[in-house]
Amino acid sequence: MTDTPTSAPARPHRLNLALLVALAALAATGWQWYDTRQLLQTAELDLARKVATADGMSQSAKAAQAQTRQTLDQLSARLAQTETRVNESAGQYATLQSMYLELTRNREDWQQAEVEHALTIASQQLALAGNVKAAISGLEAIDARLASIDKPQYIALRRAISADLIQLKALPHIDRVGLAVRLDQLMAGIDHLPLMVDAHRIETTRPVAGGKPAATPAAAPALETLPPWQQFGRELWQGFSSLIRIQRMDKPDALLLTPEQRFFLRENLKLRLLDARLALLANEGSTYHADLTAAADYARRYFDTQTPATAAWLKQVEDLANSPVTLEPPELTATLKAAQALNQAPPVAPATGGQS
């Protein structure tokens, strides 16, 4: 009976302790729940912020990707253009290289072609125009060109050129320019030559001094010694003889020229001399002499050959007609054959240095 009162007060003390422990555990649990909730909210906010940031970064990445793709497209287009230009440049380079190789391939062929062309021109000058001076100048230029090249394969060609130069320089010199100047002077003097019809008109219309024919000193006393009726008859006859004149004319058509025909006569004579001048420069001797002969015939037929001017003019025409204007220049056959043989010869292989 004595143990019951002592155990009753100890039980409430244990309950209070358990209650305190429970309250402490509950408080700890609540605090933990609150802290966990705060952590969750913070995590949610961080997650939302990170998601928003990631979304923005995704949009920026998409924009950057689009810009990058556009840049790649532009770079691809530029690359294609660059490749096209590179291909064009490569083609141009290949063309230039081919042209360069063509120009530098066997330089002697070009030199020989140049020499043959110059020889052809000199031969044409000699054969067509008879221009010996031009042919000599051309051959001397070719010989100087070959001398500057100084190749043994040109010895035969230079020997032929030297032989032709000796023959050309031995030919007599014809001053075609001087002859052409003399023809020009003759053409200019045609307008001043008197025609036969003009000379005849001046002679027939020349008045007699005092209206009477001039009497010789021996005839004057004889007329005074005649009877008056004979003096009257003599004066009457002299008056009629001064009005009527009978003269023999071997070329009557020369006196029937109209003013227009006289103009064309002088122009035709100038054309004859002009044709002779052209024939002189063209080395056509037969045409030259024929035109000068025809011009002299015109002058003798229609112009007054008794005047000093016409006589001197005809003398110059005859001198020009007797001047030699044609030559028989040698043909450059040997030189041309030597040039052709040089072109047909096999090319000389270029010397190559030994390899070390």
Automatic annotation (TrEMBL):
Gene Ontology biological process terms in this record: methylation
Residues forming coiled coils: 65-92
GO terms for MF: uroporphyrin-III C-methyltransferase activity
Pfam families: HemX
EC number annotated for this UniProt entry: 2.1.1.107
Keywords linked to the UniProt accession: Coiled coil, Methyltransferase, Transferase
Keyword Transferase: yes
Name listed for the protein in its UniProt record: Uroporphyrinogen-III C-methyltransferase
Native organism: Laribacter hongkongensis
Lineage: Bacteria, Pseudomonadati, Pseudomonadota, Betaproteobacteria, Neisseriales
